[in-house]
Amino acid sequence: VQLQASGGGLVQAGGSLRLSCAASGSIESMNAMAWYRQAPGKQRELVARIIIGGSTIYVDSVKGRFTISRDNAKNTVYLQMNSLKPEDTAVYYCNANSRSGSTWGQGTLVTVSS
Predict the structure, then answer these.
(1) Are 37 and 90 in contact (CB under 8 A)?
(2) How confident is the model over 7-23, as a mean pLDDT?
(3) Are strands 90-98 and 108-113 parallel, antiparallel or unpaired?
(4) What is the spatial distance between Cα 80 and Cα 104, in angstroms, rounded to a whole number?
(5) Between the CA atoms of 4, 56, 48 and 22, what dihedral angle is there, to the nearest 10 degrees?
(6) CA–CA gap between residue 106 and residue 62 (Å, rounded)
C-alpha cells in the first residue's frame, strides 16, 4: 500500500488543521495507522496511533487537542489538530503497520506562527 498525506499548511497559533492520509489500498486490515512528526533538528516522534480495534493513543503534548480517526470505506486516516501551538510546527508523516511491515507516506509540513 502507498500513503499520500495532505492538509498541511501555515496557521496561526490557536488555529486548526486537518491532515489526511489516503491509502492506495484497504486499511481495514492494517494493525495500526499512525501520525508521526519531525521538527527541525529533532527526532521523529509518534503523535497519535489508532489500532485495528479503534483504540487510540496520543503523545502527552497533544492530548486533548488532536484527534486521530480512520474511515475504512475511504481508506483514509485523519488527524484533526485544534488549538495549535508554535511547538507543533513539524513535518507530519503517516504510517501504516501490517504483518508485512511498515509503510511511510511522504511528509506534509505544518507551520504554526505565534
Answers:
(1) yes
(2) 98
(3) antiparallel
(4) 19
(5) 10
(6) 22
Decide: 90 and 107 in contact? Cβ < 8 Å: no
Beta strands in the chain (DSSP E): 3-6, 9-12, 17-23, 32-38, 45-51, 56-58, 66-71, 76-81, 90-98, 101-104, 108-113
Please give the Cα distance from 33 to 114 (Å, whole number): 30
Round to whole Å and give the CA distance between 62 and 82: 9
Is it the case that residue 19 has pLDDT exceeding 90? yes
* Cell numbers found for residue 55: 483504540
pLDDT tens digits, one per residue of 39-97: 999 999 999 999 988 899 999 999 999 999 999 999 999 999 999 999 999 999 999 99
pLDDT at residue 1 in the model: 87
